[in-house]
Amino acid sequence: MDEAHANSICYCGIMAALWTSWSNDNLERGFFGCQNYGDRRYCCFFAWFDNPMSPRARIVIVGLLRKVKAIERERKKE
Ligand SMILES: [Zn+2]
Predict the structure, then answer these.
(1) Residue 50: what pLDDT?
(2) Domain extent at residue 57
């Protein structure tokens, strides 16, 4: 498991949410936080998302973030 992926799993064992605004050209400093924020299951997970990245890595990460956002949207529909 690579570091970026490891940082995106909270102590609950689920994919953490990335809290920031972001785009392909401007990946701002963000952080991963537990998706259970506001819930009593909240595990207080916190990890900065500001690893120095190569252009290739940024493309891969943005692609992963899009998948995360899509999964989050699907979950909210349930
Ligand atoms: Zn959690």
Answers:
(1) 66
(2) 3-77
